[in-house]
C-alpha cells in the first residue's frame, strides 16, 4: 500500500470523505476516499502500489476488459453488442474537428483494452493501422488487441518514446486509474501536435447518480479508480500540466451503465432483490440531470495545448510514424 500527494496541489492536506466497498471482493473489505483541502480533488488513500494494482482487476468480471474469448452468458453477450454499437459514437467524438485527411491522422489511445476503439477508427473511419497505437498494461488484454493487427504497448505512457506526434490522444475512462497521472499528462503534452487535442472521459463525482447512491456508486470502483473528478478539478489538473480545457460534453451511456450497476451493487450489499424498474427510474433522472454537463454521470473533456506551453516543447519530432521504434513492440 502507498500514499500519494494530490496531483493538483502537490500536498497531502486531506480530509476524510467516504468509505466505499470493493464491488468484486466478497470479504467486505472497504477502502477510504479523501478530499484534498487545497484542490478539492477526491482520491483513494491509501492505495495499492502500481505493481499490485493489476491484482484487483478480475479477469472475467471487469467489463472494460471483457472480450468474446472470456465472455460467459447472455449478459456478457448483450454488453459486448452494445459496446460495439457505441464504438462508432466514440470514434466520431475522437475525430471531431480534425481537418487533415484520415490517411494522415494519428491517434494514440492510453488504456486501449482489447483495441475496439482503435479498430473502429481503422475500419469505420479509414485511419491506417500504422497510424494507430494503443497502450494497455494488462498483458492478456493487450495480446488480444494485437491479434487484430493493432500496435499495442504495455509500457507506461510516461516511459514510452515515439518519433512522431499525435493528432488525438485519448484517455477514455483511463485517467482515474493512473498511478503516475502527472507524468502521463506531461508526456501527452509532449506528444500532441500543436493543433492536436486531448480527449478525456471520466465519471463525474458531482453527478445525480453519485449523489443518490453515495458509497454504493459503482464509479467509485475502489481500489481500481484512484482519482474522482468533477469538471472543476479536471480542469485544474489539465491546466497544471500544460493544457487548456475546452468543450465539456456529456456521454449519456455512462448514466445508464452507472445507475444500472449501482442499483445492483446497492441491492447486493443490502440483501435485496434487484429491481430493474427502480434502476430505469433513476437512470431516467440521471439522464435528465445530465442535460447540464456539470451534473452528467460521465463527462468528456476536450483539451488543447496552452499557448504559453507550446514554445517550451522544443523542436517537433519527425512525423514519419513508421520510424517509431517503440510502436512496433
Descriptive tags:
disordered C terminus; four-stranded antiparallel beta sheet; 20% strand; Rossmann fold; 329 residues; alpha/beta; globular
Question: Overview of this structure, please?
Answer:
The chain is an alpha/beta fold. The chain has one domain: Vaccinia Virus protein VP39 (Rossmann fold). Helices cover 31% and strands 20% of the residues. The protein is built from nine helices and eleven strands. The protein has a seven-stranded mixed β-sheet with strand order 6-5-4-7-8-11-10, with helices on both faces. A hairpin with an 8-residue loop joins strand 1 (14-21) and strand 2 (30-36). Helix 8 (252-270) runs antiparallel to helix 9. The protein is globular, with a radius of gyration of 19 Å. The chain starts with 13 loop residues before the first strand and ends in a 24-residue tail after the last strand. Mean pLDDT is 88; it is low at 314-329.
Please write out the topology.
Elements: E1 14-21, E2 30-36, E3 42-44, H1 50-53, H2 73-95, E4 107-110, H3 116-123, E5 132-135, H4 139-146, E6 151-153, E7 166-172, H5 181-191, E8 192-203, H6 208-213, E9 227-228, H7 231-240, E10 243-250, H8 252-270, H9 276-289, E11 298-305
Parallel strand pairs: 4-5, 4-7, 5-6, 7-8
Antiparallel strand pairs: 1-2, 2-3, 3-9, 8-11, 10-11
Helix pairs in contact: 2-3, 8-9
Amino acid at each position: 500500500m502507498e500514499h500519494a500527494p494530490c496531483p493538483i496541489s502537490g500536498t497531502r492536506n486531506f480530509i476524510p470523505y467516504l468509505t466505499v466497498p470493493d464491488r468484486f471482493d466478497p470479504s467486505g473489505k472497504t477502502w477510504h476516499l479523501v478530499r484534498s483541502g487545497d484542490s478539492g480533488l477526491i482520491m483513494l488513500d491509501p492505495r495499492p502500489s502500481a505493481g499490485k494494482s493489476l491484482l484487483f482487476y478480475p479477469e472475467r468480471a471487469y467489463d472494460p476488459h471483457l472480450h468474446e474469448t472470456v465472455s460467459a452468458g447472455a449478459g456478457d453477450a448483450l454488453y459486448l453488442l452494445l459496446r460495439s454499437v457505441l464504438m462508432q459514437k466514440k470514434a466520431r467524438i475522437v475525430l471531431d474537428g480534425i481537418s487533415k485527411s484520415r490517411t494522415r491522422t494519428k491517434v494514440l489511445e492510453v488504456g486501449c483494452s482489447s483495441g475496439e476503439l482503435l479498430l473502429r477508427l481503422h475500419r469505420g473511419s479509414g485511419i491506417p493501422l500504422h497510424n494507430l497505437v494503443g497502450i494497455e498494461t494488462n498483458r492478456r488484454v493487450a495480446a488480444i488487441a494485437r491479434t487484430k493487427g493493432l500496435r499495442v504497448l504495455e509500457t507506461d505512457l510516461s516511459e514510452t518514446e515515439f518519433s512522431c506526434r499525435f493528432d488525438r490522444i485519448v484517455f477514455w475512462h483511463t485517467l482515474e486509474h493512473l498511478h503516475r497521472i502527472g507524468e502521463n499528462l506531461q508526456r501527452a503534452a509532449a506528444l500532441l501536435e500543436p493543433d492536436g487535442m486531448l480527449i478525456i472521459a471520466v465519471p463525474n463525482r458531482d453527478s445525480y447518480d453519485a449523489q443518490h447512491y453515495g458509497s454504493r456508486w459503482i464509479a467509485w470502483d475502489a481500489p481500481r479508480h484512484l482519482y474522482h473528478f468533477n469538471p472543476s478539478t479536471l480542469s485544474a489538473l489539465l491546466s497544471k500540466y500544460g493544457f487548456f480545457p475546452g468543450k465539456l460534453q456529456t456521454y449519456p451511456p455512462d448514466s445508464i451503465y452507472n445507475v444500472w450497476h449501482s442499483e445492483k451493487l446497492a441491492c447486493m450489499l443490502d440483501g435485496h432483490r434487484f429491481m430493474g424498474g427502480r434502476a430505469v427510474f433513476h437512470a431516467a433522472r440521471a439522464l435528465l440531470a445530465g442535460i447540464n454537463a456539470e451534473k452528467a454521470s460521465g463527462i468528456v473533456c476536450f483539451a488543447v495545448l496552452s499557448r504559453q506551453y507550446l514554445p517550451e516543447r522544443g523542436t517537433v519530432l519527425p512525423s514519419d510514424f513508421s520510424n517509431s521504434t517503440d510502436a512496433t513492440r
